[in-house]
Amino acid sequence: MNEMSEKSYAKVNIFLKISKKRDEYHELVSRFVRVHSLYDTISFIKSSRKAFCIIGNFGCKMETNTVYKAYKLIENFEGVEEFFKNYSVIIDKNIPEFAGLGGGSSNAATFLLMANKYCNLNLSKDELCYIAVKIGADVPFFVYEYDSANVTGIGEIVEKFEEEILDIQTITPKIKCNTGEIFKVFREKFYKQISKEESDRLFKMKSTEILSNFDIKEANDLYEPAISVYSQLEEYAKENWFFSGSGSSFFKVTHVK
Ligand SMILES: C[C@](O)(CO)[C@H](O)COP(=O)(O)OP(=O)(O)OC[C@H]1O[C@@H](n2ccc(N)nc2=O)[C@H](O)[C@@H]1O
Ligand SMILES: Nc1ncnc2c1ncn2[C@@H]1O[C@H](COP(=O)(O)OP(=O)(O)OP(=O)(O)O)[C@@H](O)[C@H]1O
Predict the structure, then answer these.
(1) From CA 16, how far away is CA 203, in angstroms rounded?
(2) Is the ipTM above a cut-off of 0.90?
(3) Residues with beta carbon inside 6 Å of ligand 1?
């Protein structure tokens, strides 16, 4: 890694419950945990392209890249446009897309943290979070850089959760899970909302404790809607494997440090 490089980690949702509807969105009650063994690498390298440039292997054009969206939200800050006339953004992708692992969201957050540092913006985590939430629900979690966190709202309320570092293994079936479609089916066929008491109980439990008390359906409210849309996912639901986000990834905790 060169001197201006950072790891952009994946996440899993140890549990993901819905607490209420908010317009076309759903408020979450979820434990996000960082996957230390799975990350993209983002680097700023000197280049004389004279315009903002992202180099990497993406399934989308630059204008829809989450890092480009993050750049557009900070380009008017003092020094940012000038900086990115002289530096290109290189993203070495390892996190699969449409995987429920927060790849694009993590990249946007890591980019914001790096731009804050190298453009000397001096923005606080909360100020960065205010920008992050405009890009996507999972971005704020990555801005705070916690290993484990209790996340509510649409993803903008992130509270650090103290527990041992978890070793997490993931498998990602080659099924592009459409988050919008899965939330739509959840709302139409599987809608339920978790009570405040149950949320408070879950937020106090360690992640390993939750996974030993919940099965895959109980842990993630989006699992049943996901398999009703993508039935072949069910083949991957092995003993001690859980479902992350809106899929397609499954994960299991292999070790607690
Ligand atoms: C499922 C999670 O990955 C959990 O970590 C996130 O909540 C997903 O949030 P996100 O990345 O912002 O989701 P997007 O892929 O931008 O959202 C696609 C669509 O999913 C629906 N959506 C998304 C997030 C949410 N909390 N409620 C929703 O109803 C909305 O219709 C939205 O237009
Ligand atoms: N930096 C990026 N890395 C990967 N995909 C990106 C990126 N920017 C935009 N995308 C596009 O966003 C869409 C979803 O990508 P991805 O699934 O990685 O993002 P995410 O929403 O953060 O993760 P999740 O799978 O947990 O919803 C894909 O269409 C992908 O092409």
Answers:
(1) 11
(2) yes
(3) 13, 16, 24-26, 28, 100, 105, 136-138, 154-155, 179-180, 183, 245-246
